[in-house]
Amino acid sequence: MTPLPALRTPTTRVVGVLFLSLFLSGSLLPGNLHAQATETRIIVRAVSHDAKIIGSGAGGVRVVIRRVRDGSVLADGVQTGGTGDTDSLMRKPRVRGTDPFDTPDAAAFRTTLALDAPTWVDITAIGPLGDPDGMTQATKRVLLIPGHHVEGDGFLVELTGLTVKIQEPRSEQPVPQGTPFTVRALMEMLCGCPTEPGGLWDSGDFTIQATVYRDGQPVATRPLLPAGTRSLYMSDFQGLEAGRYEIHVVATQNGTGNAGEARIRVSVQ
């Protein structure tokens, strides 16, 4: 007698598909009911657009590695170290197969993850931490493979922006009514690399200006010019009437998306 064919119900089809998926993933292999985690070394370097690595001199950068699937944090720490080799990063042409960012003392965030399967992660860099009012961030999504170490240059996460800090007048400083005053500001790359006339980051490639506001309306705008010291720019403003004012300094780098700003409030008495 010919045996009757096995019945295939929706339930048995679902069970079959589930069994096949578990088998292919390795979960049902003998002796491997639970996949073993594999140590995987990872290096991340947060770099300043058109500049160098953002290191300890700029306060470092916070790096967070988060699993995409469930949002869990796999690693969280601060990138520390130096800005890297200027010749390798800024003067020499990049050669495929080399690691120009991986030089002695170059800043990096290093971690070892325990991975039991290919894992999509978001790597987020937040900084520079030395400029709380001007911090920016960027995220890179990558696939990590258990046992596939990413070292050397590592994963590069590029932050776009400029560091701008108003040094004079000081925030909330009283300014004498009718007396000329000076606005002086620091402008650097995010890595803390200096800007100056004729330098590697030539001040002629940047536009920096200060605007004085009262009640949200601009009352005076002037360009800030090199002050004779690296990364410092200044301009004199005529005396103001009594009242509360906001000084807003904005800087941009020609030909890039780099920009930065700083704001303070002063009282003219």
Please describe what this structure looks like.
- A five-stranded mixed sheet has the order 9-16-15-11-12, with no helix packed on it. A four-stranded antiparallel sheet has the order 3-2-5-6, with no helix packed on it. A four-stranded antiparallel sheet has the order 8-10-14-13, with no helix packed on it.
- By secondary structure, it is mainly beta.
- Mean pLDDT is 89; it is low at 4-8 and 17-33.
- The protein has helices at residues 10-24, 86-91; strands at 38-48, 61-67, 73-79, 109-115, 119-127, 136-144, 150-159, 162-168, 174-175, 181-189, 206-214, 217-223, 225-226, 232-237, 243-253, 259-268.
- It is elongated, with a radius of gyration of 27 Å.
How would you summarize what this structure contains?
The chain has 269 residues and is mostly beta strands. It is 8% helix and 46% strand. The strands form four sheets. A five-stranded mixed beta sheet has the order 9-16-15-11-12, with no helix packed on it. A four-stranded antiparallel beta sheet has the order 3-2-5-6, with no helix packed on it.
